[in-house]
Amino acid sequence: MLSTGKRPNYGEPSFEGSRWLIWCIYRWYKIMSPRIDLEIDGIAFDEKNLTLYVNIHQIFRIWIIPFYKAPVSFVTVLKLVRYPPLPPQPSYSASINPNDSQNGSLASSSKTSLFFIQSQNDLYQANEFFKFFSAFGVLSGFLLVWQFAATALCVLGAGLLWPVSWVEQNVIGGNSQKSIGEAARG
Question: How many CA atoms lie within 13 A of 17 on its CB side?
């Protein structure tokens, strides 16, 4: 089975034998950080697309750096494959008798399926990712200042350039029912 993964600091290409590559990556993680405290905060399963969303927070420690720890939160998106695959489901029509004892027995009579991870994608916010590389939160502090500055620039740009969006919404977009005063009030 082919598998792949994406993380902020490396990627795992998909090819025959990529499971060995994943094993090496996780072995290196185990060497660098023999103990990772991990808790799952929530899980959502998209059965139609066979995708599992896992909200995780963990404390990552590197043994070679004493007193270092990186408490991070992230979401892991796991693409799954079902084995054995389910047989094609019959399409039901109005001619099927709902009182027939055979209806609905397909699911209960089929064998139990196992799910295997086809790909894993770890999604970190920038401030969470910086915690891995930032001693005592220095990079996280710079990122926080950057985020506040970017927010201030967005507010300033929205205040100065609101006529541009008004023209896009009311002239180009064809919504001619709003006046300039109505559009400015929101």
Answer: 0
**159: helix, strand or coil:** helix
Q: What mean pLDDT is predicted for residues 120-145?
A: 78
How many Cβ atoms sit within 10 Å of the Cβ of residue 55? Answer: 15
User: What is the percentage of the chain residues whose pLDDT exceeds 90?
Assistant: 23
What pLDDT is attached to residue 48?
93
Any long-range contacts for 4-12 (C-beta under 8 Å, 24+ apart)? 4/118, 4/119, 4/120, 5/119, 5/120, 5/121, 5/122, 6/119, 6/120, 6/121, 6/122, 7/121, 7/122, 8/122, 8/124, 8/129, 9/129, 9/132
> Using CA atoms, how far apart are residues 123 and 127, in angstroms rounded to an integer?
12
pLDDT given at position 21: 80
**Which residue has 């201030």 as its token pair?**
152
Whether the bond between 84 and the residue before it is cis, its omega within 30 degrees of 0, is yes
The pTM (predicted TM-score) of the whole model is 0.59
Cα gap 33→174, rounded to integer Å: 58
Backbone dihedral angles phi then psi of residue 114, each to the nearest 5 degrees: -105, 150
Instruction: Decide which of 7 and 108 is more confident.
Output: 7
pLDDT digits (tens, 9 = 90+) for 28-62: 888 888 888 899 999 999 999 999 999 999 988 88
DSSP-assigned beta bridge partners for residue 117: 80
Closest CA to 36 of 127, 132, 104: 132
